[in-house]
Design goal:
Strand order of the largest sheet: 1-2-3-4-5-6-7-8-11-12-13-14
Number of helices: 1
Number of domains: 1
Low-confidence stretches: 2-25
Structural class: mainly beta
Largest sheet: 12 strands, antiparallel, barrel
Strand content: over 45%
Radius of gyration: 17 Å
Oligomer: single chain
Mean pLDDT: 85
CATH topology: Porin
Helix content: under 10%
CATH class: Mainly Beta
CATH architecture: Beta Barrel
Length: about 200
């Protein structure tokens, strides 16, 4: 009975979020989500988290609402949804609520993201139920907002430094945007060696 109620609540959340609006689209620090939501964009991603491969497909169906599918290889399969309650402004942070449904049940969490002083430096916080009950936190610092060419003809990708606590430990690394479509990251995952991710985005 409890699982059925959780599923009903999850579906109600999905329906409720379809009427919200949003703006920003940087929806991850490294592995943890942020308060930003993608808009009219399909993203395919593979990442290695603490030795486990994760394949994820997400789509921003409309401004302020995205859904996704996530497979932890050899483990759980998730259906996810995230919606923005409001976008970030000079006086308030971006605020989003999200949920994920798996055979183990339903988890919900809230997320906030806000610029901290200088442009390109942002903080992110999240807290919820189940595996999100320990909370999440992260900071990101964009080093160069556009790709540049060196005097040797090399193209330097857009680069963002990031550090996060994902509820299990601390991670730190850098995210790179090689082209408008192709991005990735490298990170040291506390006690679990090197993690990485690759993603490809399509606008629609």
């Amino acid at each position: 009975m409890l699982k059925k109620r959780s599923i009903v609540v999850f579906l109600v959340l999905v329906l409720a979020l379809t009427v919200t609006q949003s703006g920003l689209a940087a929806d991850r620090v490294l592995s943890i989500p942020t308060g930003d939501v993608t808009d009219k964009e399909l993203e395919i991603e593979y990442r290695s988290e603490r030795g486990t491969g994760v394949f994820e497909l997400s789509a921003g169906l409309m401004p302020g609402f995205q859904v996704g599918l996530r497979q932890h290889l050899g483990s759980m399969f998730y259906v996810t949804a995230k919606g923005a309650l409001w976008a970030e402004t000079a006086s308030r942070p971006a605020l989003a609520v999200a949920g994920e449904l798996s055979t183990a049940g339903v988890d919900f969490y809230g997320l906030v993201s806000k610029q901290l002083g200088r442009p390109g430096f942002r903080g992110h916080l999240g807290f919820g139920t189940g595996r999100y009950s320990r909370g999440m936190a992260g900071v990101t610092l964009m080093l160069n907002p556009v790709r540049t060419k060196t005097s040797w003809g090399l193209t330097v990708p857009t680069t963002t430094l990031a550090a996060e606590y994902d509820g299990r430990g601390f991670n730190a690394g850098a995210a790179f945007q090689f082209t408008p479509e192709l991005g990735g990251y490298l990170a040291l995952q506390g006690g679990n060696g090197l993690g990485f991710g690759l993603n490809y985005k399509l606008q629609f």
